Amino acid sequence: MQLDYRGKNVVVTGAGRTGLALCAYFCRRGAAVTLSDSRSAEKIGGLEVLEGLGVAFDLGHHSEGVFTAADLVAISPGVPLTAPAIAAAIRNGVPVLGEIEIAFAEFEAPLAAITGTNGKSTTTTLMGDIFQAWGKTTFVGGNLGTPLIEAVDGRRWDWGVAELSSFQLEAIADFHPRYALLLNLTEDHLDRYPDMASYVAAKMRMFENMTSDDVAVLNAEDELVMRVTADIRPRRVLFSSARILDQGMGYDGVDIVWCWQGAERRFPVRELRLKGLHNVENVMAAMIPPLLDGCPPEIAWQAACAFRGLPHRMVEVRVLGGVPWYNDSKGTNVGSVLKSLTGLAAPVTLIAGGKDKGGDYAPLADAVREKVAHLVLIGQAAGRMEEAFGSLTHTVRAGSLTEAVQFARKLTPAGGSVLFSPGCSSFDMFKNYEERGDLFARAVLELSD
User: In CATH, what number does 315-445 get?
Assistant: First the structure.
């Protein structure tokens, strides 16, 4: 159902892709739109199009008067609800809604929503591939890339599959997916949240409007996931990478095993192109909603076996002098680095560092001690990382990512491997993790034989 915003005074916060898409959406709906961003116009691209649509601008700051006078504030994920202008709007009774909530109100297809600390993008993309292989017209996006708001004009969808971050879930009201997947929970984004409990609480908002007719897909081997979802209303369907389940998706070390309503179906993991136990978990989670909705198992498995993985997620850039180089720029937290290291044999040269997110690096200590022969640190977080486990292995600091690649080339013997898995966000040195990963790949490809 198309909502009527004609004549409404709407303030959109954040001039990234989501904010620009929101501006265009509200303009098409006849609203008077103001775009607010703390950056100056010179640091934001794409504003010329919005000027042509009649959008007003509040740039270089967030003016409280603009926010308190609004009929609606549409918030982009990167802007916290605690920002002073946002908080002022909330105190004045102005509705503050996120892009996911606004888009969901008009998205008429059933939706599968995926969250967790790690594996979201892989699971989201693969599930979209499965639905599409089944012949369903499927929107795939959310935090992954294409904002959900871009899916609500014109085209009709059979299904929607959306990756959701904790930031996006902070500003929902009636959001209600058909399937909600919580893949895992480890420390992340503690530069935004005061503690782990606040981060988990934001993730858990995904379930708050679901009913017993809906389904929550959960990781049976994540103790925190199991604990915090014990009393949710939707029906729980579990996946496990450590055992076969009486009901649900399990793994016996050789086959993925789907047990449901008295029937058993086996899928040989050796047929997958994705490698690593964490990817077995991603595949299991991605298959469950399509299978429950009636997708033939052979179609789901064929799509899973064809899937090659995502850019910047454990991608082998090249093998040089007997050393494989892996680009894992999307590894932006400790849990992700740990999963990537688990899939490699010692000795590993690990390049890590970036913008510190406030988490605890200690969970990496055992893996560093056992597998990492050389640790090359970059960026703002280098000092904290060196304090955490620099004494456990040979550690050096590099002034740039290119210099880190050159150090790794000198340090790594044939038979070893180089893993670029930062464990941090990219914003101290780069625009995003894609730019960071592209630079790493270029620097590796430019190394001479």
Answer: 3.90.190.20
